[in-house]
Structures are given as structure tokens and as C-alpha cells.
Amino acid sequence: MAQTDETALALGQRSESGSENGDQSDEDISPTPQNGAVGEQEQSNDVDSPPRLSKKAQKRLLKAQRYQEHKLERRAKERAAKKAKRAAARAVLEEQQAKRSETSTGEGVGGEDDEMVGEETRKRSREGDEEVGRESKRRRQDAVSDGTSATNKQARKQPFGAKIVVDLGFDDKMTDREIISMVSQCAYCYSSNRKTDTPFSALLFTSLNGRTRQRFDLLNTYQNWKGVEWWEEGYEQLWQPTSSSIAPTSIVSSTSLGEDEQMTDATNQGQGISDSPGEHTYTCPVTKTPKKRTTCTKEKVVYLTADSNEELLELDPDATYIIGGIVDKNRYKSLCENKAKEQGVRTARLPIGIYLKELPTRKVLTVNQVFDILVKWVECRDWRKALYDVMPLRKFENVSKAARKAKKKQKEDDTTEQIAEADEEIEESGDKGLDAARASPLHGSET
């Protein structure tokens, strides 16, 4: 019996120890967070927390905070200054009104005398105004008689027979910024031709299409330009149709005309001008009205380009000169030269190499500069004077490309130095300002 009790006691202890081991094993089996889960949790915490600002961003934030802190103070000073300015102006006005009041009413015994003096003063003033009016009228009459008035200025102009064509057929080879510059240069050309006393007989803008036309439409002023022809076609229409394309019937019918009429008709045919309705007229794409088209023979057409080997020594009043309407920063070599050669048009260049041999820079000019040089030559008939009057001063500066780059770099360095000095001033404010900036609502809350 005693042995049985000992056996039962041993079994009970064994079961208790087994239960303790079971509890421990259960704890060991319970799932533990893996490394990936811990990484994801840390990453989520990083996403929730605001990003750390760089030193430069903290400086900008501090500067913005300072601006906001002193904003009310600045506004108060501005209001006080405006108030003082209004008060000073009001005081001056009241003082002037008081003086006028004393002058008009008079004071004491001398009031009547003062009134008589005031009346005499007003009388002299009226007489002076009348004299000024008479003198102005005399000057206007003298200007009309001498032909110097604005009305007679147009009548005094003596047009030069040559024609100028600006070829706008390079729309696809320019950037938007270059298109804007090209349209501005066309406006300068028109202005120069209007101001001179010896304008060219005709100013044409051909191949008006694409972005160039759109830019002109945005200006909304070129429709009112006077004495200008706008063509959607190319400048080839200058010599098309030529005299050889006129129908033989028109030549036969001229036999019935008188001798004077035949001579006039032959002259018109030689110049490419005809009275036949619609033959040499076109509908202007800008004004939508029919106009007479300017024509000439191909032999009288000269394309001006810096790539030509022929120097232009004199302007022919019967010739037509074409200027390439392109702003390309010298990207396209011999573009206008090759275009003229393909069409059998003679080319020439301005005599810059003859009269300005000392010019250190390239000899490529803008459209309006070329036009102004031609205008000046017509006025003075001196290439040297025309070139010196129009060429910009920077063309005479012997500055190399490396020197220009060094100057640009120096300017950038100066700007960088100024920024660094401003940053140092902000840093001198101390960490206290940075702490305040971090705590501001613009920075965001930190967790």
C-alpha cells in the first residue's frame, strides 16, 4: 500500500513538470515578428514623419518667417509715411488758397489799390497770351511756306527708285524667339523707310505664312502700314509672268493702236506692267483688298547675302534688292546664297570688307541693320558714313570669345558671392532662429 502511494505521488510530480514544460513550449511556439515586418513598420514610421530639411531650406524658411514677423511693422511705417505726405500736401494747398483769397479780396485801406493792381496784372497776362498766339500762328504759316510743316514733309520726300524685298520664307528654320525678333526687325525696317526723306519706292514682305504670320497678327498693327505689299507667295512672283509669257494676240492687237500708244504699251510690257484686269494684281492677304503687284525682270533682282563674293558698290534705282528674313545665329551656312543660286538670282554683299577692314567681329548683320545701311547710303551716297552710322558699337570691340566667356563667368561668380554673403548673414542669427523656424507651421510638426 505504501508502495502504491509512492507511485501515485511520483506520477503526480511528473504530470506537473510536464504541464510546466507544455506551457513553456507553447510560449516558444507563439509567432514572433519577422525581420521584414519590423522593417516595414520602421519604414511606415519614416513615411509618417516629415522629411528632414536641408540647411539651405532651413535658411529660406527662417528668412520667410522673419519677413512675416516684420510685415505688420512695415505696413505701419508705410501707412504713417502716406499719412504724413497727405498732410503736407494738404497744408501746401491750404496755404495757396489763403494767399489767393488775400490777393482777391484785399485787406485794410489798401484793398482798392490791390484790386486795381490785380486787374492790371490780368490785363497784361491776356495781352501776353494774345501775342504768343499770334507768334505761334506766324511760325505755322512760315513752316507751311518753307515746306517744313508736317503736312508738307510728305510732299517734300523724293523716293529712291529701288525696291526692297524681305524674304520671310525661312519660317521653318527659326525658333519661336527668333520669329519674334524677326517680326520686330520688319517693323524697324518699315519705320526707317517712313522716316527718311528718300524712301525706297516699294517695300515688300514675301512668303508671309506660318508662325511669322501668326506673330504679325498678334501685333494687330501691321494692317495699317502704308506703302507695303504683303505676299503669301515667294519673291519669284516679281518676274512671273515675264514679258515672254504675254499672249501673242495682245501683241498683234497693238498694231491697230497709234504710235504713242504702241510705245507706251511696249514700255509697260518691258517693265512687266500691264493694264489687263487681274494679270498683275492680287488680293492682299492682310487687307483683303485687290492691289497692283510690283514686278520686275530677274536680271534686275539682287539677293543681298554676306556669303556672296560680289561687293555691292552702288545701288541701282531700277533694281530690286532682297534681304533674307532669317534670324539663325549663323547656324545655316550659305543658306541665302544657295537659295539665290538655285533660282538663278544674282547675289551681292555690303562692302563692309572694303570700308571697315578693321572690323574685328563677324560681318553678319540683322535685317533692319542692312536696311538702315541702304537707307543711309541713299541719303549720303557714302558707304563709310552709312556703315559707321548704323553698325552697333559692339561690332568694333575686339573681344574674343574666350574673353566674353570669362566676363560671363565673372558675373556668375559675383552673383554666387552675393548669395554666400546673404547666407552668412542668416547664419549669424544663430540656432535660435532655426529652432523657431522648425517649430513654425510652415515647417510642419515633428514626431
TrEMBL record:
Residues 66-81, 92-102 have a biased composition (Basic and acidic residues). Its EC number is 2.1.1.221. The keyword Flavoprotein does not apply. It comes from the Eukaryota. Residues 53-63 have a biased composition (Basic residues). Residues 31-47 have a biased composition (Polar residues). One of its GO terms (cellular component) is nucleus. Residues 150-398 form the SAM-dependent MTase TRM10-type domain. Keywords: Methyltransferase, S-adenosyl-L-methionine, Transferase. GO terms for molecular function: tRNA (guanosine(9)-N1)-methyltransferase activity; tRNA binding. Residues 1-156, 404-447 are annotated as: Disordered. It catalyses: guanosine(9) in tRNA + S-adenosyl-L-methionine = N(1)-methylguanosine(9) in tRNA + S-adenosyl-L-homocysteine + H(+). Residues 414-428 have a biased composition (Acidic residues). GO terms for biological process: tRNA N1-guanine methylation. This is tRNA (guanine(9)-N1)-methyltransferase. It comes from Serendipita indica (strain DSM 11827). The lineage of its organism: Eukaryota, Fungi, Dikarya, Basidiomycota, Agaricomycotina.
